[in-house]
DNA sequence: CCAGACGTTGTT
DNA sequence: GTCTGG
DNA sequence: CCAGACGTTGTT
DNA sequence: GTCTGG
């Protein structure tokens, strides 16, 4: 799972870290409390417009967190699409198109998971934990993106395109597994290129590969409890106590 | 074949 | 309790 | 994912 | 658009 995370880096900083060739002018204020449907930074590789055989270039841009497939008629989905299960992403019509050739990285400083104690009934306590990579200081969530625009009546001016994105999830592993059974798929540097390559047709084998590679990241994560996530600011990731 | 859905997490 | 906006 | 709202009529 | 349950 991952339904809340932090990103405080500018587009320029992300461009340097992810070895991007271009950075779109994106207004993304630092946030320690990013929620689904908000704008988030994403990293994509795209082919030159007029030369599909040319070299891809790497771009940092912004997308709405919750993937909307091209055929959807509304921006707001009646079902959640901010996560995509790695186990089934290849067979879900909402995600299949994006898996084939629209893969992305969603950068993060760290993310949150809630440790639930109790049976869900009265007395259940949920404690948020902040989870991050002390080695790299940055996480690269494996994501997918999709362009969408609202349909319009014949003869009307077209609606603007909206870039949307989601991130893959997997069974938890490593330290974070002690508090929760799902985790985002996080990419080590050595698989960024293959995951982002738009000339590689994404399939379940590719997903299986990155899920496997994500274990080295999961194994080195650190986590600590934090106060309830209200508002926004650096205080949200301060260890509780 | 068409009609209708198209999703995740967590909890039971 | 349940829905929804962020 | 959680946090916060959850409603109407009529009057100002 | 694509998948699947009937």
UniProtKB/TrEMBL annotation:
Keywords: Covalent protein-DNA linkage, DNA damage, DNA-binding, Hydrolase, Lyase, Protease. GO terms for biological process: protein-DNA covalent cross-linking repair; proteolysis. Signal peptide: none annotated. InterPro entries: SRAP, SRAP-like. One of its GO terms (molecular function) is peptidase activity. Pfam families: SRAP. It is an enzyme of class 3 (hydrolase). Its EC number is 3.4.-.-. Belongs to the SOS response-associated peptidase family. This is Abasic site processing protein. It comes from Microcella frigidaquae.
């Amino acid at each position: 799972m991952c339904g809340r995370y932090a990103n405080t880096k500018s587009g320029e900083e992300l461009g340097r870290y992810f070895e991007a060739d271009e950075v779109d002018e994106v207004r993304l204020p630092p946030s320690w409390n990013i929620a689904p449907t908000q704008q988030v930074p994403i990293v994509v590789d795209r082919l030159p417009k007029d030369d599909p055989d040319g070299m891809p270039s790497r771009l940092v841009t912004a997308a709405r967190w919750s993937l909307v497939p091209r055929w959807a008629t509304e921006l707001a989905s009646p079902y959640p699409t901010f996560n995509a299960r790695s186990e089934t992403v290849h067979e879900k019509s909402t995600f299949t198109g994006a898996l084939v050739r629209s893969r992305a990285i969603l950068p993060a400083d760290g993310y949150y998971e809630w440790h639930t104690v109790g049976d869900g009934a009265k007395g259940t306590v949920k404690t948020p934990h902040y989870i991050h990579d002390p080695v790299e200081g940055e996480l690269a969530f494996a994501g997918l993106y999709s362009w969408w625009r609202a349909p319009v009546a014949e003869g009307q001016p077209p609606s603007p395109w909206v870039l949307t994105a989601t991130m893959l999830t997997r069974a938890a592993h490593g330290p974070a597994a002690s508090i929760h059974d799902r985790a985002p798929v996080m990419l080590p540097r050595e698989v960024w290129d293959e995951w982002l390559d738009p000339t590689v047709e994404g399939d379940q084998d590719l997903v299986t590969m990155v899920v496997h590679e994500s274990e080295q990241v999961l194994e080195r994560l650190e986590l600590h409890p934090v106060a309830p996530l209200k508002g926004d600011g650096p205080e949200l990731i301060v260890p509780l106590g």
